């Protein structure tokens, strides 16, 4: 039995803008292999519900749900061996479910949202969600594309419209006792990707939670992943918990292609000496496994996180300097960093396949 280890239960929520697009599917598959989420919410699949079974199968998910007669905008996928999902309400703008971990360590009410573009349609969304607000201590999170902002800081570029919809959204949050869970990454989740003064950035996608969610998961985290394959950024919601898990050493073939792999091993074997050759051999094998474990994490783990944050940071810098002389150089750097991230994601997928 190993030492207590922090793990995270992760749930991507993404307006993919077309599940049939190869670029979106490939990016989602990479994120699934990287983060191993037990639950996924897909918004705007723009495909018939009959396509969901094959879509889920390609991603490796055994269970799925959609209700095309009422809501054609949201698909849910999950692993039944890890969690159970009981749908409790479906509207044309949301699907709410009770999600329970099979270990009994987690039970939450999860509402996935796709807000319609009209303020008066969204008013019905706020009303239906308000009726679902738990009256007990059930943790509740609401996540998705709300199609509205909570302040003018959440929009850059474009013209101002009536702030009535924004006020109604804020009133809904106050009345139900939910708050914004914040984010890591770019401050905006959607862009029209147009050039010059016509470009617009908006934070349309977010996650909200009640006080019981925050007390049950004080380290909850929402990351805005880079926008790849869609004009919306995926949200990656992480609920942290602890479990005991032992770790076994496993050699991965992709290591040998990295420049510092042999140097890491050499550093161990040129070190410690023991008078007993067998003791010396055993100790060096243990030291090698430990050194390669740390090297693997720093080379293929933390590096990927740093690259994701760099892409998000560059996009934020581009947003701040749009229209200035430095914008063109930032676009070039952002494009290069995005390509490097895609390559690193593919390397990570290869690593995870070898571990399987």
From TrEMBL:
Residues 327-354 form a coiled coil. Keywords: Coiled coil. It comes from the Eukaryota. InterPro entries: Endo/exonu/phosph_ase_sf (IPR036691), Endo/exonuclease/phosphatase (IPR005135). This is Endonuclease/exonuclease/phosphatase domain-containing protein. One of its GO terms (molecular function) is catalytic activity. Residues 14-232 form the Endonuclease/exonuclease/phosphatase domain.
């Amino acid at each position: 039995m190993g030492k207590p280890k922090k793990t995270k239960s992760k749930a991507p929520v993404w307006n993919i803008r077309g599940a049939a697009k190869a670029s979106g599917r490939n990016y989602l598959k990479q994120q699934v292999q990287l983060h191993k989420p037990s639950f996924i919410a897909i918004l705007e699949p723009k495909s018939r519900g009959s396509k969901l079974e094959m879509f889920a199968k390609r991603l490796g998910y055994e269970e799925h749900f959609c209700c095309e007669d009422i809501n054609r905008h949201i698909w849910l996928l999950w692993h039944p061996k890890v969690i159970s999902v009981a749908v409790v309400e479906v509207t044309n703008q949301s699907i709410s479910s009770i999600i329970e971990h099979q270990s009994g360590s987690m039970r939450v009410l999860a509402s996935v949202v796709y807000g319609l573009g009209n303020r008066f349609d969204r008013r019905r969304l706020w009303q239906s969600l308000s009726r679902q607000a738990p009256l007990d201590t059930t943790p509740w999170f609401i996540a998705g594309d709300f199609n509205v902002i909570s302040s003018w800081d959440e929009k850059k570029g474009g013209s101002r419209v009536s702030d009535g919809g924004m006020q109604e959204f804020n009133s809904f949050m106050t009345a139900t006792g939910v708050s914004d869970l914040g984010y890591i990454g770019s401050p905006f989740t959607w862009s029209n990707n147009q050039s010059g003064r016509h470009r617009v950035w908006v934070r349309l996608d977010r996650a909200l939670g009640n006080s019981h969610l925050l007390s049950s998961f004080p380290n909850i985290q929402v990351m805005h992943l880079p926008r790849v394959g869609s004009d919306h950024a995926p949200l990656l919601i992480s609920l942290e918990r602890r479990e005991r898990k032992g770790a076994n050493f496993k050699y991965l073939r992709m290591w040998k292609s990295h420049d510092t792999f042999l140097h890491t091993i050499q550093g161990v074997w040129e070190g410690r000496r023991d008078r007993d050759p067998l003791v010396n051999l055993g100790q060096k094998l243990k030291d090698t496994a430990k050194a390669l474990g740390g090297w693997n994490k720093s080379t293929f783990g933390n590096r990927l996180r740093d690259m994701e944050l760099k892409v998000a940071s560059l996009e934020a810098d581009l947003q701040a300097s749009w229209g200035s002389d430095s914008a063109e150089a930032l676009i070039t750097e952002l494009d290069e960093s995005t390509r490097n991230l895609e390559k690193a994601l593919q390397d990570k997928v290869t690593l995870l396949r070898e571990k399987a």
